[in-house]
Each structure stands twice: as C-alpha cells, then as structure tokens.
Design a protein that fits this description.
With 149 residues, the chain is mainly alpha-helical. It contains 9 helices and no strands.
Length: 149
Amino acid sequence: LMQFVRSSMFPPVVEELFGKDNLLLTKDEMLNAQNKFAKYDADFEYGVELPAIFLREWSDCKKWLLNILSGVVGRIEDRKSPPERLVEHLISAVDHPNASGYSLLLLWASQANAIPISFWTLAYILSNPNVLAKVRQELQDWSLDLTGE
C-alpha cells in the first residue's frame, strides 16, 4: 500500500511543484527520483546529524537529488521570467549557491508527511468496513452529482 501511495503521489506532486518543463525527467528517471527520495526521507533524521561517511547511501541519494534540482534551478534562472510557481519564488528569494539545497528542502517538506498520512488514511479506510462503506457512498453520490444521473 505504501508503494502504491508513493507512486501515486510523488510524480504528479513533484511535476506540479517544480514544473515538468523544469524537471525534464523521463518516466524511468522519475521512478529513480522517487526511490532516491524514499531512501533520503527514510534516513533524514540520521543524515542531517551524522557525517556522510556513516550514511554513504543516504549521502549518494542526497547528492543525486541535489544534482537534479540544480538543473531545475539553472533552467528557472535562465528563463528570467517573473516567478509563477512556488519553487520559482523560492529560488528568486535565496542566494544562488544554496538554491538547490532550498529546493531539496521544499521537495522534502512537500512529501515527507503527505505520503505517510495518505498511507495511514487509506489503511484506516480499508481496515474499517463502516468507514469504507461511507466513503464508497460519498463517492457514488459525488459521481452522480457530476453526471446528473
């Protein structure tokens, strides 16, 4: 279930947050980014406190993500158009050398809690027949409202 939630949420949220035209990731690269982020997120508490030598895989994931995001930062800065997306406002407000780091922080802030809370919400719904029936009924009522039937 967690993998389903992660793969359902990560790509569209990241594409919306950073802009598909800024990311320039293929489907396989997006899957790789999702997996690298999962590892980065899983060990975040240790990674920010311990030297990289003790968490080599976490450090490699962080470097990979920073590299992707530095490309995003470069493409946004090259455009020199007024900021529209949150990440564009962020990049325009921070110093250039640290822009990719702030972008990684934005990615982490957007995903680190959203994915687990979505997982636990779905797990609760699926494990409680009364709640599941209520959700199904609400979805059915909503779809009838849309179709007018």
